[in-house]
Write a structure and sequence with these properties.
The structure is a single chain. An eight-stranded mixed beta sheet has the order 3-6-2-1-9-11-12-10, sandwiched between helices. Strands 14-15-13-16-18-17 form a six-stranded antiparallel beta sheet. About 35% of the residues lie in helices and about 25% in strands. It has two domains: about 240 residues, Acetylglutamate kinase-like (Carbamate kinase); about 140 residues, 2-Layer Sandwich (VC0802-like), CATH 3.30.2130.10. About 40% of the residues are buried. It has about 400 residues and is an alpha/beta fold. The structure holds adenosine-5'-diphosphate, aspartic acid (ASP) and magnesium ion (MG). The site of aspartic acid has 12 residues, from loops.
Length: about 400
């Protein structure tokens, strides 16, 4: 007998049919003699709908209240799923974060899980109950609810698997695995039978929403056996693990895009030591992550610095910078996207970057910024071309 954590995303539990389909997958795993812990996301578009409801009231809702609101979605789906499992004749109980408890830090809307107590979970499992946990939430030191960021239910699942030392953590979703690109954008993308934690972490961080990036980070840290599978079709999925056996050498393992970025430029900063430190230190203190950075060559004692932030942070970053640099020109562009390629194989292969840039050149797409590392290359381009960029880059690397 093993312990298996199964996570089902919003589209998998969107309606009654979905709930019953998912309940059958769960009870089959239970019938095989396993302890089963299930994590669910909010049904269908519930989270987006709740965000919209808040927007009707204010353009800048309190982050605490937002988290209070958004977590209701997962409370609905976990209770409905427990009922569905019971309806099939199996013992089940739903639990939210405070009942377990799952404690998190206090960074509302992007909290990190700090600790999960196994006691209650084990007590329910010992009674052979199927435990259904509300994903995406934690309780902070003020006894308030905090969410783990969009897509965070994956992280709840992996964290539970790590806590319970589960044999397997399965992420059931509406695709049957991790592909070389989002199959909605590149219909002939290839399914990867396996992918390393490191590559998956990059892909997820760079916009491949199939897994929440922190879930991959945690899976790597605790060596969780992680699998992405379809909840609609019984097909082999993708295994995410430390080492992958490379049958046929691929230059890259995937292409991803992130439309959720914005570029900020500060013009005419003094060309003296300490400017970058002060600027990025200021943003760091406010928890604003900076990604691609471009600094111009100094001329006439001044220089320009451009960088990207997540769209969510644009408003806060602009306000902060305007206060700190009142006499400087500060521009922003929120019509940009980051398109990236990821692959462990690119370290030893010169020319991968050139190949990516050639694909963009052939499509007439201009590059605004570039950043590279051992395992990824990212470019910033105008958002209107982001899909086309993914398609042409994918075609360049994966045509047969
Ligand atoms: P869930 O609601 O189950 O959490 P998500 O919408 O968060 O599902 O993630 C699944 C979606 O991720 C797929 O429908 C697919 O469009 C998208 N996706 C993006 N990049 C990839 C990729 N490289 N491989 C597979 N799916 C991807
Ligand atoms: N319901 C949340 C979201 O839509 C969490 C999740 O789906 O993982 O982002
Ligand atoms: Mg998701």
């Amino acid at each position: 007998m093993g312990t298996i954590v199964q996570k089902f995303g919003g589209s998998s539990v969107a309606d009654k049919e979905g709930l019953f389909r998912v309940a059958r997958i769960i009870t089959r795993t239970y019938d095989q003699g396993n302890n089963v812990v299930v994590v669910v996301s909010a049904q269908g578009d519930t989270t987006d709908d709740l965000i919209e409801k808040a927007r009707e009231i204010t353009s800048s809702p309190s982050r605490r209240e937002m988290d209070m609101l958004l977590t209701t979605g997962e409370q609905i789906s976990c209770s409905l799923l427990a009922m569905t499992i019971q309806e099939l004749g199996y013992p089940s109980i739903s639990l939210t974060a405070w009942q377990i408890p799952i404690s998190s830090d206090s960074n509302y809307s992007n909290a990190r899980i700090k600790k999960i107590s196994a006691e209650r979970l084990n007590r329910e499992l010992d009674q052979r109950k199927i435990v259904v946990v509300a994903g995406f939430q934690g309780i902070n030191k003020y006894d308030d609810i905090a969410t783990l960021g969009r897509g965070g239910s994956d992280t709840t699942a992996v964290a539970l698997a790590a806590t319970l030392k589960a044999d397997l953590c399965q992420i059931f979703t509406d695709v049957d695995g991790v592909y070389t690109a989002d199959p909605r954008i590149v219909p002939n993308a290839k399914k990867l039978p396996e992918i390393s934690y490191d590559e998956m972490l990059e892909l997820a961080t760079l916009g491949a929403q199939v897994l929440h990036n922190r879930s991959v980070e945690m899976a790597k840290k605790y060596n969780v056996n992680l699998e992405v599978v379809s909840s609609f079709r019984d097909l082999p999925g993708t295994t995410v693990k430390e080492e992958v056996i490379v049958m046929e050498k691929m230059l890259i393992s995937g292409v991803a895009k992130d439309d959720h970025v914005a570029r900020i430029s500060l013009i005419g900063l003094p060309d003296v030591p300490g400017i970058a430190f002060k600027l990025f230190g200021l943003l760091g203190k406010k928890n604003i992550n900076v990604d691609l950075i471009l600094q111009s060559v100094g001329r006439d004692g001044t220089k320009d610095i451009s960088f990207t932030v997540s769209s969510d942070n644009l408003e806060d970053a602009m306000q902060l910078l305007k206060e700190k640099y009142p006499d400087k020109t500060i521009e922003f562009n929120d019509n940009v996207s980051k398109v990236s390629i990821v692959g462990g194989g690119m370290q030893s292969n010169a020319g991968v970057a050139a190949k990516m840039f050639e694909a963009l050149y052939n499509a007439g797409i201009n590059i605004n910024m570039i950043s590279t590392s051992d395992i990824k290359i990212s470019v910033l381009i105008d958002r209107e071309y982001s899909k086309q960029a993914v398609q042409c880059i994918h075609e360049m690397f994966f045509h047969d």
